[in-house]
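Recap from last week: sequence in, structure out.
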Amino acid sequence: MRGRSLAATLTLAFGVTTLAVFVLVGSFLYLALEKQIKAQDDLDIVLAARHARRLVQELDTSKGIREHGDRLTSIVLGNEAMSMEVFGPDGRMAIEHNAGETFPASGGTASNAASTGSNAPNASIALDEASETSEAGDASDIHDPGEVAEAGGVETIGALPPLTRIPASARITDVDIGAWTGRNGAPIRGILADARLHDGDTATVLIARNMSDRWRLLDRYRDKLNIAGAAGVILAMLLSYLLIRAAMRPLRDIAASAGRVTVNRLNTRITVARVPSELEALVNALNAMLERVDRGFQHLSRFTADLAHDMRTPLSNMRGAAEVALARPRSTEEYESLLASNLEECDRLSRMIENVLFLARAEHPQFVKHMREFDAGQELTRIAEYFEGIADDANVRMQVTGAATLTADLELFRRAVSNLLANAIRYTPRGGEIVLDAAESGEEVSITVSNEGQPIAHEHLERIFDRFYRIDPSRSSLPSTGSSQGSTGSTGLGLAIVRTIMELHGGSVRAESDARSTCFILTFRRV
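Predicted structure tokens:
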């Protein structure tokens, strides 16, 4: 199943991130503008109310309100969204300006909390010529209520929305501003304040503002933000895709370079010009992997060739001996000698196959080890006793020294030491001595097998642990011990098995050689 495109995934991620950023920034700007507009409009309402109150307080009687109507309404002139109504001491409207959509036809509701609104400019000035007949008999003309309704205002304070009425002695602030819905659903914000006349009577001033124009402005601003945000997201996604495609070009070059690696060209390495620093580790890891594959393939090729050569030698010996025996009639003793020789070659082949199978199993990740704690000195003694007959035949002395407690697979331990001991017996001159030693040092346990004999050249010390590697070109054979712990003969796999066993235990093996002796050291780490 083909996975999603990395470029498309990153582009989508950048697009979503950009959209989220635009939404947050746009919302912040919108709310900030709304708050600023509302604060400015509230300030205009408060200043107009204060100015109107001050002018009313300069009047002597309520008749002065009608006489100075033009002067009072001049406060809100020039702003079609602003309206004013002034009520006399009797609660009836004295003057009115631009109250067309300020109040609903059937009254309305108001609150002292801030609200939103829009404008509906409709200006008119209605002067109320009506007056009441006082108890003293004073009479004046009465304004027709129908004219007030047509002007858009309200006839009495009682018909106003329920606003908080600011006393004449209290300071007018923006917290006293109320909000309600006017005619045609227009949002209105206003303030209602009393003003003391010189004769002691109280008039009431209403300053209101239709917020419809502000809300239309905010709507247009929001629409522009949405359009700009959508265009910005599309542009960001397009540019992101192009930049990501360009940034991922080294990956395509790496894939193309890796595609040139074949079985016949394992020495090819990935080369990309100007690799980004983030991809250097990937290129180095791939080249290191190719190096290991190349080295392993070459090792396997050499192993296969050496195995074929070593298996061909005993088979050729058996075939040659059989052909010579069949060339003419032979005695019974000669045939028995031929069968004995062929049997030795068969044993040699069996040991070789067994060792190859062991190495193959040991390299498997699920190879099972049976770890246990034992006395390494006692085990060295048992192994030396097992090889005592072979050592006597070779006129070689064996000595076991030291003691140590070791945790390892006992069977693998015996096999590793047996291979080293068999190798030491093979190359120790007659009358020489082999020393097996066990020692503890901190977190390590060392098992040493040293023997007298010819030194090993320095260039061979590391390679002697490779499979089928021999210093001696002659492929002399050591007689079989008849046990799985015995020598591997001349198959060239004995030391390779020792190294594999040590790797399975997380330890190491090394060889040291000088003019007097050769020493093989097994180093186990404590578990």
